[in-house]
Amino acid sequence: MGLRRARGRPAQGGQAARLGDRRHQEGHGRRGLGGGDPRGAVTASPTPDDLEAVGAQLGRAARGVHAVAHRCPCALPDVVATEPRLPDGTPFPTTFYLTCPRAASRIGSLEGSGLMKEMEQRLRDDPELAAAYAGAHARYLEAREALGHVAEIDGISAGGMPDRVKCLHVLAAQSLAQGRGVNPLGDEVLDLLGEWWAPGPCVEPGA
User: Fold this and answer.
1) Cα(145)–Cα(64) distance, rounded to whole angstroms?
2) Stated pTM of the model
3) Which among 38, 40, 41, 20 is positioned nearest to 29, based on CA atoms?
4) Where is this region: Disordered (predicted)?
């Protein structure tokens, strides 16, 4: 049995246990796997159920997934750590990839509101914020390097870092994966999202 997109239905009892490894869920909860490592490294391999869920979330087969970097309160993955080189050989700089379609949709609305331009202006005006954002860039690179060195993307992070804001999905994914206090702009995005998980899992068992 596969997975299909949910339609905002509240979570059903026992559903989280069917979709993922219960021991893994209890071990990490909403905390990103990279939150306790100064490099932000992630090491836990995804389960087959995790990969199935991610494929349903993305609407395509998951590629190059190294680990589940963060789980939603519904217990499904919402951020995965991706190998820096995909199986077909393509360099892939987006280490922390947001998979939850509900969160992604809300972030898309934020991007359409002009928030990225506002954030870039604040980076120009606030040296302290700019320094913290540059630090998030460094943490991102450290996490990716821990997964493997790819010369073609050496020094390149994602989302516009270290001095631009080009993708709020990337920034939010980093805040989820590495924990709050790493990327100040990613933290702001999470604050604006609200409880995107409240309607229940974004994908559910189905034909």
Assistant:
1) 15
2) 0.81
3) 20
4) 1-50
